[in-house]
Amino acid sequence: MGNFLWTIPFQVITAIFLLYCQLGVSAIIGAIALILILPLQVALASLLSRFQKRAMEFTDKRIKQCNELLQSIKLLKLYAWELVFRDRVEKTRNLELKMILKAACLRALSIVVTECIPIIAIMTTFLIYRWIEGKTLTANKVFSGVALFNILLIPLLVVSLAVNALSHARVSCRRMNTFLEMNEVESVFIPLTKADRELNTLLEISNGNFSWKHSTDKSEDQEIILSSINLTIKKGSLTVIAGPVGSGKSSLLAALLGEMNICSGSVKRCCDSKLAFGSQRAWLLNATLKDNILFGSSLIEEKYERVIAAAALKQDIAALPGGDNTEIGERGINLSGGQKQRISIARTLYADTDIVLLDDPMSALDVHVGRHIFEEAICSYLINELKRTVVLVTHQVQYLPKADNIIAMEGGKIVAQGTYGDICDNYPHLVKSWEETEMIKYMDPKKVKSLNSSEIDLNRGINLFSSNLTRSSSIVSLPLSRISLDNFEDIPSVVPQTKQNESDKGEETGKLIDSEEIETGSVSWRVYKKFILAASIRFSVSTLLAYFIRQSLRVGSDFWLAHWSQSSTELRQRNTTEAEIISHQSHMMLIYVLICCCFVIFSVVSSLLTEYTCIRGSKRLHSTMLHRLIDAPMRFFDITPIGRIVNRFTGDVMILDERLAQVLDELFYCSFFSLGGVIVNAISSYYFIVAAIPLVAIYLLVQRFYIPSCRDLQRLNSVSKSPVLSHFGETLGGLSTIRAHSRQSAFSKKNNEVVDKNNNAFFNLQATILWMGIRLDFVGSLTVFASIVCVLSSGLSGVASEGVVGLSIAYSLMISFSLNWMMKSVSETEMNFNAVERISHYINIKNESFNANEDVDKDWPSDGVVNIENLSLRYDENLDNVINNLSLSIKGGEKVGICGRTGSGKSSLMLGLFRLIDISGGNIKIDKKDISDIPLRNLRSHLSIIPQDPVLFAGTVRFNVDPVELYSDETIWKALDIAQLVPIIKNKAGLLDSPVAEGGENFSAGQRQLFCLARALLRNSKILIMDEATASVDMTTDKIVQRVVNQHFKDKTILTIAHRVSSILNYDTIVVLQNGNIVEAGPPSELKSKMDGIFSRMIHDNL
C-alpha cells in the first residue's frame, strides 16, 4: 500500500484533467465533490481511533483475564468457580465488542463513502452538464466520464484503507509510546569504598527507605514498604532473614537485588560482584532440565555433577525419560513442587557469582530434604567450598543457629540483628514466639543432622509423558500428571508401564509438550459452515443478498445512463420539441437519481451487515471456545503451553473481529462488480464469452500455485506467534531472576529469534501476495485487451448500440482491477478462515464428563461420611491406574491424615474425590451418594480445599473470597476475622473493595494462604481437604491455620495430605499409601508403636 500511495496524486490530477477536457467546468465541480471526501475521512479516522483505543483497552483486560483463568484453571475447577471467571471474561468481551462494532461501523461508513462518492460525483457532474450548462449528454461524453470517475475510485479506496490502517497504527503507536516512556528500573547501587572492601563488605544498606513505585519525581508521595534499613553483608557469610507474615522479608531481598525504588538512603555493592537469585516460587524455563540449571552458562561436567549432587537431583534425573535432557514443560508442569525448587536452587549453585540470594527455598521441601539442601548445598558447597556469600530468607527456624547473622523483620523494619546467641540474649521475646510455633524442637543442634544425597531416595516417581503414568504431590500447585519424587529411601517404588499401544518416543526423547497442530490442504468446507452457523444463516444470506442488490443497482445506474444518452441522441435526431426533450430529460434524471440513492443505501446496509455478521460469528466462536476450554480435562492444560492457548484468544480472535469483515467486504464487492462487468461485456459481445474461457483458465492456474502456498504461510504465521507469546510471558514471570543473573541480553536475543521467525513467515506471506499481484496484473491486462477487442468488433458491426459499447469499454477498464482484487480477496479469505480453523480445534477438544443424573440438597453432605470401595483411578484412558482397588471408610467428623512417598497416590486419591481424574473402577460414596452420579460442579462446590500454593486473583478482597457473591458482608468479615486478615484489610482504604493485584502480589505468601483459609471458612463444607496447606508458609501462618482448623472445623471430616508428619499426629486415623494401595492404616499411636512400620520410620526421618 505504501508504494502505491505516492502515485495517487498523479493519478488524481491526470484523471481530473482528462475529465475537464471531456466535460468542462462541470467535471471540476464533480471532482471537488471527490476531494471533499478527504476531510470527511480524516474526521471519521479521528473518531475511529477513539473507539479503537477503547476497544484495545477492553481487549487488554480480556486477555489478562483469560490468562489469569488459564494460569489458575486447576484451582478454579476445585472451587467450581470456572463459570464465574468465564462470565467475567465474557462481560469484558461484550464491552470490547461494543467498541469494536462502533469502530467497525465507522470503518464501513468510511469505505462506503469512498465507494459512493464517485457515483455522487458522476451524478452531480451530469446534472450540472445538462441543466446548468445546457449541453446534451452523448454516449461518448457519458462513458468517458464514467470511465475516468471509476479510475478515480481506485486511489480513493486506497486512501480510505490507508486512513483506517493509519488510525489503527496511531492508536498502537501511542500505546507503545506510553509504555516506552515509563520509568525503567535503574541501578540503585553505588560502589563500596576501599575501606569497606578491606572489611570484606559485599553489600551495605544505610538508612534505606524503599518503595515499589518507580518514579523520577521525588516529590511524589510513595508508599514506603521498607523503612530505616541498616545492614551489612560480609563476604563468605550466611545471613538469615526471618519474620512473620508480611514483615518485608521478600521485599528486603528485592531491595538487595535492586528491584525496589530507593526513596532515601544508599545501597552499596562491590562493583565486580555478581548475583544469583532463587525465588520463593521456583521459576523455570520451558526447556530441558539441564538448560534450566546451566541458564546460559557453559557446561563443566565436574561442576555440573557436584551441583546435581548438592541439590539432591541425581536420582530425579535418572528416572526421567530423557535424563537431564528431558523437557520439564511450561512452568515445570511435569515436576513436583520440591523438584522445581531444587532445580531453581541448582541454578543458583551453578551460577558463577559472589552473592547468592535465596527466598525461602526450603518451604516446598520435606524437613529432611530441606536439611540436606541447607547442609550440603548452602553450607558445604556454597559457603565452605566456593566461599560464596549467602542471604537466606526462611521461616524454618531450625537453621538459625548456623547463621553468621540473623535479621529479624517486622512491619517493614529490622527489629533485631545479630548472631543466634545475640538474639537469644537481647530479644528473648522473639525466641519465645519461635518456640510457640512448635518448631523449637528442630533448633537443637544435636538434631540437625547432615544427610548425604545417597541417603535420600528422592526419585521413585513417574512422569507425565505419553508413555508413562504420572502423579502429583500437590493437588493445586502441581498438574494432575507429572514426575513424582519419593522422600523415603527404603520404601520400594514401582514405575507403572503404559499400555502396549503407547509410543515410546516420548520416553526416549523426554519430550513433554505437544507440538502445535498445523492443518494441511485447503480449509475444509466444514470450517466455513461452522462460521456461517455461528454468525447465523439468516444474516449471512441477508448480507449476500444486500451485496447482490447493491451491485445490481450499480450496473443498473450505468445502464440507465447508457439508455439516457442513447435516447437523448435519438430524440435530437427526430427533431423533437424542446418541451418534450426537457420532460424526457427530467424523467431520465429523476430515475437515475433514485437508482443512485438506492445504491448508496444498499452500500451502507451491505457493509454494516458484513461487519455485524462477522462480529456476531466471532462472538459466538469466542464464547464457545471459552466454554469448551474451561470444561477441558486438566491433562489438556498440562501438555498445552498457555501462550499457545492465549494466541487463539488474541491473534485468531482479532482476525475475526477486525480483518475478516474487511476482506469479505472486498471479496463480495469485487466479486459482484466483476460479475457485473462480465455480464455487461457478454451483452455487448458474445465473443467475450469465448475469450473469457482461456482467461479464466489462466486465473485458475495462477491461483493453483498461489493459494496453497499462501494458505500454508498464513498457518505458519499463526503458529509462529505462539512462541512469541510464550517466551514473552515466560520472561515476565522471571524478570527478577533474569536481572539478578544478568541474562537480559540472552532473553532479548531469544525474543528477537522467535520474533524473527514470525516475521519471516509474515514476510514470505506478503512476498507471495506481491508475486500473485504482478501476475494477476498481467492477466488483467489481457482481459482488458480481449474485452475491448470484442466490444469494438460488436460496435463496428452494429450488433451493439453506441451506449452499450461505451458502457462495456468503461467496465473493461475496471474489470482488471476488480478481478485482481477479487482473486486476492479469495485467497485472503481462506487465509483468514485459518483463524476459524484454529479456534475450531479447541472447540472440538474432549471435555470432562459432566453427565450425572442425581442432584443433591443444598446441605449435602450433612454427615461427611466417605466410603471408598475397590477404587481405581487413572489420569488418562491411555495410561494405567494410579490407584488400584483401594477401599477406605471414613466416619463423619473423622480427622484422617494421608501420607506416603510422593507418587504413592495420596494426591491422586484427593483428585479422585473432586473427579479431576478418571474413575476407572469402583466408586466413591459421600453420605451414601455415588459421586459419579452427582453433577460435576455441584460435587466440587460442596467440598472445601485449602491448597498448598495459594492463588489470588486480580480484583477486590470481596471477589477473592466470594466471587460467586453468596455471602453477606457480615459473614465475610467474620471469616476474615477468624483467618486473622481483618487488621490487614482494615489498613486498606477500600476495605472489602480494596484492590488485589494480579496473583495477589500486594499480599505476602502467608497472607495469601490465609485468604484460602477464609474461603474454606465461608464455604463451611462438611468435608475439608488440606493439600499440604502449611508446607510453603512461615511459622506464624502455620500456627494460625492449624489453630483455626482445630477450633472451627472440629465437627468436619478432614482429609489432610501431610507434608510434615508432626501436623497429623493428633488425628484420628493415619492412612499410609504406597503404589496406589493402602499399606498401613490406624490411629497414630498404634502406627507409631510399630518399630518396623513405614509410618514409624517417617516420624523418625522427620526428626
UniProtKB/TrEMBL annotation:
- All copies of domain ABC transporter, residue ranges: 203-436, 866-1100
Annotated organism of origin? Dimorphilus gyrociliatus
Which CDD domains does this UniProt record tie to the protein?
ABC_6TM_SUR1_D2_like, ABCC_MRP_domain1, ABCC_MRP_domain2
Pfam families in the record = ABC_membrane, ABC_tran
Q: Which GO terms describe its cellular component?
A: membrane
Q: What protein name applies here?
A: DgyrCDS1959
> Which parts of the chain span the membrane according to its record?
12-44, 108-132, 144-166, 589-610, 686-707, 778-797, 803-823
| MF GO annotations | ABC-type transporter activity; ATP binding; ATP hydrolysis activity
Record's subcellular location: Membrane
